[in-house]
Specification:
This protein has about 450 residues and is an alpha/beta fold. It folds into 3 domains: about 10-145, Response regulator (Rossmann fold); about 150-325, 3-Layer(aba) Sandwich (Rossmann fold), CATH 3.40.50; about 325-450, Helicase, Ruva Protein, domain 3, CATH 1.10.8. The chain contains 20 helices and 14 strands. It has helices spanning about 15-25, 40-45, 65-75, 90-100, 115-145, 150-155, 160-175, 190-195, 215-225, 240-245, 260-270, 300-305, 310-315, 330-345, 355-365, 370-385, 400-410, 415-425, 430-440, 445-450; strands spanning about 10-15, 35-40, 55, 80-85, 105, 180, 205-210, 250-255, 275, 285, 290-295, 320, 355, 390. Helix 1 (about 15-25) links the parallel strand 1 (about 10-15) and strand 2 (about 35-40). Helix 7 (about 160-175) crosses helix 8 and helix 17 (about 400-410) runs antiparallel to helix 18 (about 415-425). The radius of gyration is 31 Å and the shape is elongated.
């Protein structure tokens, strides 16, 4: 975070000139503090637009009480912290200040000069540190918001992607549950983060859980939490992901991997908007937005009885289907350029160019691993090249892996044919005549299929 060059502005409101100067002198022992003194409330209010971090004030002022001054300033700027320095021994005065939000109440007469100096400096320094930490958190959250703006997060301008952008805008404007589907590697978690950081919840936590990565018998504890002693090994209380994401968003990736018993427990929490930790009795209200993702067909799972129909409809919300990279045309080149620039920047490499033959090779490949595979291919190419250009020879695909992934996906015959054509074009360096002979089809058929895949 870029440090603010300005010092910490502190106001001292005290009608006794000698005491005011003593407090000012004490505070100025820290060169980062810029101190301004006032003998009454009016002069302080006239300068409140300067936005001090801390105001140190007395209870008895010539025009209004310190409590009244604090109330007025809090209405103008609730971020300002107050330290009260007063000779009042009446406990009700201290209570009144603390009730209105004073950070500390110090009785002038109960402190030696050294104790007063140390306590005052320590209290002010603690306030400044707390405010700096708060400013840094705000700054980092704003950076996250900027980072996850839709145009910064999701690269491309294909028609298929523009449809996704339209749905993302709708998702960000409301708290509707979002279900994201798409093949592995299409960027489902990235889309979930973009929705969160463009929504009204962006200042609250985004918590991600990969359901497939957690053992079935541990998932309930991970999501809902547990109390100490709830089961063997529960040596401390654990706050679950739902509570961690309170007021924010909870992203449940690979939701189709959740077993049927856990689905019932999840459904109850979503319906009631409350949970009880394992081994606990307290009912905990939750306000958590749910975003789920899967590469599986949940409708088919419902028909097979492996996914609850009532949970399916509860989670469906706004469905967003991410297109595979092979259906996004020139987006592959936009992403390749982005990944290459990012990799070079991170590794201190000079800017590299992607040659025409490399671009053609990228466009003619099906990318069964989608964006994740493209990123790996481009980063490897940046390492393999001997100069500052990426050529076709630097673009390395794992063809065997690609064809296996292809056969694992259930697709239309047309999609399979397109994959096969792309596979053989890559294998034979885009020689259409050779591929036509190998597949026993006409060249025009290959050209037509390539046009359909744009």
């Amino acid at each position: 975070m870029k440090k603010n060059s300005a010092t910490n502005k502190i106001f001292v409101v005290e009608d006794e000139p000698m005491y005011r100067r003593l407090v000012e002198y004490t505070l100025k022992l820290n060169p980062e503090h810029e101190v301004m003194g006032f003998g009454n409330a009016k002069d302080c209010l006239d300068k409140i637009h300067l936005n001090p971090k801390v105001i140190i004030l007395d209870h008895s002022l010539p025009d209004i009480t310190g409590v009244e001054l604090m109330k007025r300033i809090k209405k103008l700027n609730s971020e300002i912290e107050f330290i009260v320095l007063s000779g009042q021994k009446d406990i009700s005065v201290a209570v009144a200040f603390l009730k209105e939000g004073a950070y500390d109440y110090i009785n002038k007469d109960d402190q030696t000069s050294v104790d007063l100096k140390n306590r005052l400096l320590n209290t002010v320094n603690n306030i400044v540190k707390k405010q700096q930490l708060k400013e840094e958190v705000t700054y980092l959250r704003q950076e996250l918001s900027d980072k996850y703006e839709f145009s910064n997060t999701i690269k491309g301008n294909s028609v298929a992607l523009k449809r996704v952008f339209a749905l993302l805008e709708k998702a960000a404007r409301t708290n509707i549950t979002v279900s994201i589907t798409g093949e592995t590697g299409t960027g489902k978690e990235l889309v979930a983060k973009a929705i969160h950081y463009n929504s009204v919840r962006k200042k609250e936590p985004f918590v991600a859980v990969n359901v497939s990565a957690i053992q079935h018998d541990l998932l309930e504890s991970d999501l809902f939490g547990h109390e100490k002693g709830a089961f063997t090994g529960a040596v401390t209380r654990q706050i679950g992901k739902f509570e961690q994401a309170d007021k924010g968003s909870l992203f449940l990736d690979e939701i189709g991997e959740m077993d049927i018993n856990m689905q019932a427990k999840l459904l109850r929490v979503l319906q009631e908007r409350e949970l009880v930790r394992i081994g606990g009795r307290q009912t905990i209200k939750i306000d958590t937005r749910i975003i789920v993702a899967t590469h599986q067909n949940l409708q088919e799972m419902v028909a097979e009885g492996t996914f609850r129909q009532d949970l399916y409809y509860r989670l469906l919300g706004l469905p967003i289907k991410l297109p595979p990279l092979r259906q996004r045309g020139n987006d592959a080149l936009i992403l390749a350029r982005y990944f290459l620039d990012d990799f070079c920047k991170e590794n201190g490499l000079p800017k590299m160019e992607i040659m025409a033959d490399a671009k053609e090779k990228v466009l003619n490949y099906a990318f069964p691993g989608n964006i994740r595979e493209l990123k790996a291919v481009i980063e490897l190419a940046a390492v393999l090249t001997n100069d500052e250009t990426i050529s076709a020879n630097d673009i390395q695909f794992s063809s065997a892996l690609s064809i296996n992934n292809l056969l694992n996906d259930e697709q239309s015959l047309k999609a399979y044919n397109q994959h096969i054509v792309r596979y053989f074009l890559d294998k034979y360096d885009n020689n259409v005549i050779t591929v036509a002979k190998k597949l026993d089809i006409g060249k025009s058929t290959i050209y037509r299929m390539l046009k359909e895949m744009e």
